[in-house]
Amino acid sequence: MSVAPTCRLCAGPVREWMDLGRQPASNAFPRPDETDAERFFRLAVGICAECTMVQQLEAMPTDHMFRADYPYRSSTSDGLRRHFEAVAGWLRDTELTDRADLVVEIGCNDGAMLGVLGASGVRHLGVDPSAGAARTAVARGAEVRVGFFDEVSAAAIRAERGPAKVVFSANTISHVADIGTVFRGVDRLLTSDGIFVFEDRYVADIVEYAYFDQIYDEHFYLFSVRAVDAMVARFGFELVDVERIPIHGGSLRFTVARPGARPRRASVGRMIDEEAQTAIGEYDTYLRFARQIERVGADLVALLTDLRDAGRRVVGYGATSKSATVTNFCGIGPDLVPFICDTTPEKQGRLSPGMHIPVRPHAAFADPYPDYALLFAWNHAEEIMAKERHFVAQGGRWILYVPHVHIV
Ligand code: TYD
Ligand code: ZN
């Protein structure tokens, strides 16, 4: 009855290696009276036997993921804010040197990057479907078009403002299952010598450190250099540079240009070779990863159950998208973790997607401190642990679950 799934990029056969079960939209935090309207899908991941792109087998519909009230904000972490300020400085000083140059950012969120360029007087436009985040970006001095980036909006932007020297996107383009719409849009918009720079999580880091909670609805594709190289060529571009960046536990910054427009740096071939050596394009690597994920899930539930039975209080720290995967995959609800504290006002007073753990303001964390804090925002561990020194000083302990369950 079932038809073998095919790759969204090359139509090759996709072999499933993990089913993470029934999952909600990871950034749809329902109000207590809205839980009936929640939408779920089967979160399953596979790898294409032809082009090796790791991808989901069933997509959550885009209109459930990226709504006007999308609550994620880039600027809630100091580390990310500093990172995007550095990106803005780099683009301004190396690429956007002529007053006429235009930069377009796909998924500009609250303007952490674009606000800096706007303040420097650089011609720019952000495109983002989240009206709430866009309001903050505008308040920071960025110009934003509320909506999705595709060939239609790209053509309209070009007609209004001319071509873009740089198209930038961070943690957005892997979210689009129909990714051809993005590349056709970039094709309409980019100057002949322009660059399309995008940052996204690196599948090799996800596998190496067992960051299984990076798999959620929005991360439709998990990028490797080899698979992205083939993907951009399929859409008529060339991958000219790739660089590792220490964001979200391990990311890559890809630089794409029109074929022959820019020299191809040695880093591309070097990383493709490294991936071949570590078997990052092979099915068996992911089967081993899947077994590790199952072990981590079982260990985490066992630990939380023991702590509850021993009368210990555990609070979740950071209502991340990642925590939707962990809590729904493991079946962790308010009986094991009574609430999650988070600094994002848009998430507070709401429930975590699927498992309905209440999200409370950061102040609830110390009122009084729990015995243990389950660190869902492990990618900001350094920043958070430095801020919460007092929690540990008075006897509190952190629970981490990547690459394995442990207490620090
Ligand atoms: P993040 O890990 O950036 O994202 P993702 O949703 O992609 O998994 O999200 C961090 C979350 O943690 C965000 O909701 C803000 C929250 N947070 C805190 O509550 N306190 C903090 O000190 C930091 C850095 C983040
Ligand atoms: Zn493929």
- Distance from N terminus to C terminus (CA atoms, Å) equals 49 Å
Number of strands: 17
Shape estimate: globular
Helix content: 25-40%
Largest sheet: 7 strands, mixed
Kindly report the average pLDDT value: 97
In percent terms, what proportion of residues is strand?
A: 15-25%
Q: Nearest-angstrom radius of gyration?
A: 21 Å
- Ligand inventory: thymidine-5'-diphosphate, zinc ion
Strand order of the largest sheet: 6-5-4-7-8-11-10
Discrete helix count = 13
Give the SSE order as H and E letters: EEEHHEHEHEHEHEHEHEEHHEHEEEHHEE
Which stretches of 5+ consecutive residues score pLDDT under 50?
A: none
Core attributes:
408 residues, alpha/beta, seven-stranded mixed sheet, six-stranded mixed sheet, 33% helix, globular, binds thymidine-5'-diphosphate, binds zinc ion
Description:
The protein is α/β, with parallel strands linked by helices and 408 residues long. Helix content is 33%, strand content 22%. The protein is built from 13 helices and 17 strands. The chain has helices at 62-65, 78-94, 114-119, 131-139, 151-161, 180-189, 203-208, 225-234, 266-277, 283-309, 321-330, 381-387, 389-393, and strands at residues 14-24, 40-48, 54-56, 102-106, 123-128, 144-146, 164-170, 190-201, 221-222, 238-245, 251-257, 314-317, 340-341, 359-360, 372-375, 397-400, 406-407. The strands form 3 sheets. It has a 7-stranded mixed beta sheet with strand order 6-5-4-7-8-11-10, sandwiched between helices. Strands 14-13-12-15-16-17 form a 6-stranded mixed beta sheet. Strands 1-2-3-9 form a 4-stranded antiparallel beta sheet. β10 (238-245) and β11 (251-257) form a beta hairpin. The longest helix has 27 residues, at 283-309. The radius of gyration is 21 Å and the shape is globular. The N and C termini lie far apart (49 Å). Thymidine-5'-diphosphate binds at residues 72, 76-77, 318-322, 342-344, 347, 362, 377, 379-380, 383-384, 387.
